[in-house]
Each structure stands twice: as C-alpha cells, then as structure tokens.
Amino acid sequence: MCSRDCCSGPGGSNRGNTCTDKKGGKAGSLNGEKIIPTPQSLLYPYEVIEEIADFIVKGSGMRPKIGIICGSGLGSLADIIQDPKIFEYEKIPNFPVSTVEGHAGRLVVGTLEGATVMAMQGRFHFYEGYPLAKCSMPVRVMKLCGVEYLFATNAAGGINPRFAVGDIMLMHDHVNMLGFAGNSPLQGPNDPRFGPRFPALVNSYNKDLINKAIEIGKAMGIESNIHVGVYSCLGGPNYETIAELKALRMMGVDAVGMSTVHEVITARHCDMKVFAFSLITNKCATEYSDKKDDEANHEEVMAVAKTRQKACCELVARLIREIHLASA
Ligand SMILES: O=P(O)(O)O[C@@H]1C[C@H](O)[C@@H](CO)O1
C-alpha cells in the first residue's frame, strides 16, 4: 500500500493520485496492490470531517463562528487570538501536515474581539502534492465546527500596475485557473449535506464585508493602500512567466497567487460567508527585462508580509469586532 500523503486519505487507503513508489516506478499496481482512482470528493467523507470537527470542538470547548486562514508570513493573525487552544496539525486525526516555510502547521481556537474564532496557522497548497479536496478540507471542518464566516488571506504578486508592495487587495472575485484546467475540490460524487451539486459562485465575496473593510481602512488611515480586485490562483510552486502575467492581466486579474480559490469554492459550496484579501508582497513584471528585481522569491514574500502583519491583524480584528457586535 502506498503511504505517501499525497495519495493516501484518512484511514491510510490509497486515494488514487498519480504516484511513484520509492523506486520511482509508476503506481498502478504498488506492492501487488491495485490502485483505483478515487474522486476528490471521496477523499474526506462527511463522517471523517465530522470526527475531526468533534475532536476540535470537544478539545477546545468552543464552537467557533469565524474561521481564518493565514497566508504566507501572516501567521500572526492567529497570534492575536485570546485564550488560545492550540492543536498541532500532526496531532489532529486525519489532518495533513504543513510543508511550506511561513506556514507553522497549527490550528488555533479562541476568542478575538469577543467572537469565537478558529485560525489555520498554515494552509495546504496544491503544489505540496495535496489534491485540491485535501487542500480545502479544513474549510469543511470549520463548517461542521459551527463556522459561518471564512476569512481567507494570502500573499500575492501584484499585476495591476497601480498596486504597490505592501498594499492590501480585498478580493471581490477570482479567476480559477486550476478550474480552467479541469480541477476542482468538488470533483466526484456530491454529498448534499455539504451543499448542492452545481453551486453558483457569483457574489462569492460578501459585499457588506468588503464595504466594512474599506471603511475600516479609512479609519486606520491606510485607504490609499487598500484596493478591491480580482485574484487568480495558479498551481505553483514556480512563479509565473512574463507571458502568463500578461495573459492574466488581459483577463482582468489584479493579483496572482497559489491558494485561496479552492478554499473559497468549498466555503461557498457549504454556504459560508466569505471575506478574503491578498497582501501584495511583490510587483509582477509584465514586460521583458533583464532586471533581477523582476524575479519573485519566497524570502521577499515572507519579509514583506512581516512588515505588514500589524496592519493586516488590525484590519481583521476590527472587522471581526463589527461582525460580533452586529450579531450580539
Ligand atoms: O499561502 P499563500 O497563498 O499566502 O502563499 C503564497 C503562495 C505560495 O505558497 C507562496 C509563494 O511565495 O506564497
């Protein structure tokens, strides 16, 4: 049996992603066992998600209402949670592990501005070798824990020439490049306990929350650093070519990254309200040049995120306060 995490789901059974064994042989029959392709939706059945959610709710003694996913270098969004109960990903049954620098690999449950919240300090990316359904599985865990609002954050390259490094782009739409290529976290049989077979995605990004965030940005005196725009997720881990960036710009994309979209699709499928933003950590070149500056790198992404942690934390905390006060 193949034990690689990329192709084993809960229970350790093979989940049918293309896989090579230790000797580099193509999987199809590994150690004599036949590998049967498994649709993404069967990677984590409802009952397994329920078990994970029970583990978190019982372990924390809380039913969080707001879920936060911390982007690269934005783990401090979870550090401001009060009275935190911390769950290392390795200790949560059937949870994947974080493999990317800047993604600590912990789930933090507690209170923030009076609201009960749970935050992923570390997300899962397609390029790590995880199928999309596994990348966004924690969103379903959040849902079954009681979460109504998803706050998804990411580090992204700015394609819109008006964006500067350190700016925040509130996402109001996305272009799902992995979807264009036929990949979706919802692939396979649909479990209606999560949501409908064919979810609509217009109005995925909650307009009220976007408007409130703009107001908060003004109150913080950073309105000139706040934009509203379109994000696109590519598979990574390589950054984009100039031709790809030009094409994305022509499609109306303002910022590009390697995450978030599949999480938003999963959240909207199970009817969560979504707020998402990109921290612009680098400017993407859309013209050819020999300048080394044009080359994105993860160290720069992390360094910029560090300098903007405070503003991002304040924006998130103030918005959560508004949600909490409105529902009190
Ligand atoms: O998890 P996010 O989307 O914030 O991380 C971005 C995309 C890659 O994981 C990494 C590239 O620097 O940052």
Automatic annotation (TrEMBL):
Protein name: Purine nucleoside phosphorylase
Record SUPFAM superfamilies: Purine and uridine phosphorylases
Domain named Nucleoside phosphorylase: residues: 65-321
EC code: 2.4.2.1
Gene encoding the protein: 108053054
Domain of life: Eukaryota
Keywords noted in UniProt: Glycosyltransferase, Transferase
Similarity comment: Belongs to the PNP/MTAP phosphorylase family.
Pfam families noted in UniProt: PNP_UDP_1
Species, as recorded: Drosophila rhopaloa (Fruit fly)
Keyword Mitochondrion (UniProt): no
InterPro entries (UniProt xref): Nucleoside_phosphorylase_d, Nucleoside_phosphorylase_sf, Pur_Nuc_Pase_Ino/Guo-sp, Purine_phosphorylase
Stated role: The purine nucleoside phosphorylases catalyze the phosphorolytic breakdown of the N-glycosidic bond in the beta-(deoxy)ribonucleoside molecules, with the formation of the corresponding free purine bases and pentose-1-phosphate.
Catalytic activity annotation: 2'-deoxyinosine + phosphate = 2-deoxy-alpha-D-ribose 1-phosphate + hypoxanthine; inosine + phosphate = alpha-D-ribose 1-phosphate + hypoxanthine; guanosine + phosphate = alpha-D-ribose 1-phosphate + guanine; 2'-deoxyguanosine + phosphate = 2-deoxy-alpha-D-ribose 1-phosphate + guanine
EC class (word): transferase
Keyword Transferase applies: yes
Pathway membership: Purine metabolism; purine nucleoside salvage
